[in-house]
Structures are given as C-alpha cells and as structure tokens.
Amino acid sequence: MQHILYLHGFLSSPKSIKAQATKAYFEQHHSNVTLHIPELSNFPSKVEDQLISLIENTPALLENGLKLIGSSMGGYLSTFLLEKFGGKAVLINPAVRPYELLQGFIGAHENPYSKEKFEIVESDMGVIQALEAASIKTPGNYKVLLQTEDETLDYRLAAEKYAQSHLVIEEGGDHSFVGYENHLPAIAEFLLK
C-alpha cells in the first residue's frame, strides 16, 4: 500500500475541486494508494503541529518516503515537510513567500467550505515564515505545475525557486490551475515510480 498526503491551500478544504478530483482519480486508477487529505487549520499558528503530529501518528506516510501533493499554501507546506522528512512532492501553483502575500489578509475571515470564522494576525507572518525551506536540497524530487495567469501568486517566484526541479509552465490558466485533472496521470507516475 502506498500513501500520499494532499495539502490544500489557504481558505480551502478537502472538499475543494482539486482535492476531490485527486481523490476520485486515485480511487479509480490506483486502488493500492491511500490518499490522506487532512482539513488544515485556518489558524497558521496551529498548522505545523497539526502536520507533524499527523506524520508521527501515521507512520505509513513515511514507509516508502513521504509523497505529497500541495496546492498554493499547501505547496509551501509540502516543501517544508519534504525538506524535513525527505520524499517527493508535486506542487500546484505553490506559494513561495506567503507571509508577504498574507499581509493583505490580516483581519477576520470565514472559510468558504467549513464556515469557520478566524482571524489572521500580524504575528502569523513570523509563524509562516518560520516554515520556509531556505534551500531545496533535492530539486529532482519536486514536480511543479505553474500557470502564467495565476491571479493570486506570481508564478515567476516559483519558477525561480524550483528552477532545478521538474517544471511544467502553462500559458494562461489561473490560480485554481485550469485542467488540473489532465495532469493527474503524470502526477501519479512521478510520485509512485
């Protein structure tokens, strides 16, 4: 049995279109894979502990090396975990410096999926920055999917950070990554081979 950890982005959930498409694909084509899609805390100060305890309490995740799929903020978190534990990751429009972007999100929010109300505060920026992987030790262990018309993140930051990785840059698209489901066979092949 193989295990893959899928990490959704900020203001997202396991119910997101990409998470559900990933789940459906692996159920249909890779019945030997268990896909873990945790509901990440909306509070940045809780996410690191949540992820570390998930990995410590699910030893199967590390059995054949950690395998991650991370979207947006989930891509940032996947990079943190991969540099800590080793393994392989596929990142979709990953956030590179989310602590800069989230400056504009300080204040009250409601998760559109869970309806949980929460607040982003100034001190969260340091918490998020502490999870930054300063360098990529094994760039070949990353496959990074980027679309140039991402309205939320500048794709060039990720193209630069992951320049030595397996980069797929598509013209157009948006932050949700248009046509994501078409990439699932290649994502599975990269993670499972």
From TrEMBL:
It comes from the Bacteria. InterPro entries: AB_hydrolase_fold (IPR029058), UPF0227/Esterase_YqiA (IPR008886). Signal peptide: none annotated. SUPFAM superfamilies: alpha/beta-Hydrolases (SSF53474). The lineage of its organism: Bacteria, Pseudomonadati, Pseudomonadota, Gammaproteobacteria, Alteromonadales. It comes from Alteromonas marina. This is Esterase. Pfam families: UPF0227.
